[in-house]
Amino acid sequence: MIVPMAGIYGGVETGGTWVVCALGTGPDDIAAQETFRTGEPGPTLERIADFFERGPRPAGIGVGSFGPVDLDPGSPTWGSVTSTPKPGWAHTPVAPVLAGRLGLPVHFDTDVTVAALAEQRWGAARGVDSVCYLTIGTGIGAGLLINGRPVHGLVHPEAGHLRIPHDRSRDPFAGACPAHGDCWEGLAAGGAIRERWSADPSALPDEHAAWALEAEYVALGILAIVLVASPQRVVVGGGVMERAGLLDAVRAHLVQLNAGYLQTPLMGVDIDRYVVAPALGDRAGVLGAIALAQAAER
Amino acid sequence: MIVPMAGIYGGVETGGTWVVCALGTGPDDIAAQETFRTGEPGPTLERIADFFERGPRPAGIGVGSFGPVDLDPGSPTWGSVTSTPKPGWAHTPVAPVLAGRLGLPVHFDTDVTVAALAEQRWGAARGVDSVCYLTIGTGIGAGLLINGRPVHGLVHPEAGHLRIPHDRSRDPFAGACPAHGDCWEGLAAGGAIRERWSADPSALPDEHAAWALEAEYVALGILAIVLVASPQRVVVGGGVMERAGLLDAVRAHLVQLNAGYLQTPLMGVDIDRYVVAPALGDRAGVLGAIALAQAAER
Q1: Does residue B55 surpass a pLDDT of 90?
Q2: What is this model's ipTM?
Q3: Contacts of A231 in chain B (CB under 8 A)
Q4: Which chain A residue has the Cα nearest residue B161?
Q5: Which phi and psi (to 5°) does residue B45 adopt?
Q6: Nearest CB to A262: which of B68, B163, B232?
């Protein structure tokens, strides 16, 4: 039997494409880390368990998963991925399988919620109680902390699927979301850019019309988040946002959309301090999973 | 000097048109109540103070105000209405004036946040931790409780000003919001209905095209709230929603917009238990102001 090591926690980010596992206490103290492709659920969960069985044994494990997931502690399917279109993964009981296999407490939330926790604890939202972490990548996901705590509720934030204005005379693209067509994700995620322009987003030059449209759509969705949940900071990551100039263009649109209505400098001259890039890059997920386990076990 | 009466609290709802003051402990125990038109700030605050000076003296007073308001306890303008277009009221320090005049603790939040507190405590959201109270009246306002607590943050929810899809080929109306034109409020509040159809909303018959469009717009905004904040219940009040059949039409649109994506019966067959009418009617504001004072003083 592996003896639990005081103070060390496990983190797992199960992403749509990659799984990241780590053992440690924070960004500067990772004892072991492994990244592999997300495959079928059975072998993938097996490989995660193998990672942790090699030791040292953590006091608990946090998992940040792609969604939608069941976070209701009273539900028989708590800790499962629910209605994902990802082949084989719908209704996979991720947390229960890992907890049963490893005999360890497993804590579970969405990938974006744990990323918000990581950015709040170690990154771009330190000292901020109320944080939105947004990722614009293959899809669009938002995690939300209010009064320092993850927001669950009916399910959890699924902001990618809200509807934004879509002027078909300027952008005739019907949208890429299998469920909703031209919801926010259907218009503005990486997959939508690829479909609309029949090109890999990274292959579109900075001056391509794609990016002006993208800035507008991203700003419209952030505006909805700001006006509904009023976070004190919005951290915007994901592969699409790595495009040079895009974050600044999003900020400019947001200020314009606000039109002086919210009379705070953070939605005006200080927008650069309100809508910010992540500080932890693609480590936010796995680090946030560690933060989730730490917070739950303390 | 009036001796404070144990257990009794004061509540004030300062609405755009009416002010309601009350003294009591809850909906079935109101010792005194007064309603009068909202006038210029000076005389209006004076009249509120007069009401409370007549006694019995409460242990504290809650105020639910039209917004936007400053809720930052560290701000020099805490307790003020900020950027309202209501003549004379911009930058009025409502809570500080009442606290100074009455020598009582005064607690302050938005009218819709306190209405959410009232519906949670005594009304249509009893036993629910995470509640959105939405009013579709002259304007559109949303108050939000997450994990049982009012949501503040950058400012407070201002969901009325989010942008929803607006198909100008079907609805050429440019929108009624002075700041944003066709934001949610600019398309769907009572003022927008009046401008679009050049008629008082109450004069439009049930079968008028106004109501099908209204149901669609209201549903689009609620969808954004559901997907961003994931409340466990949405209470929808306000004069516009009193129209027969409108709430049911909104529910039908919401289910259709969700398209099975959130796999919960509450966004499907059980939508009637998710999006509900208020139980406290137009008393929610003043009762919620009492609830705010009670919660803060306990």
Answers
A1: no
A2: 0.95
A3: 153-154
A4: A227
A5: -65, -35
A6: B68
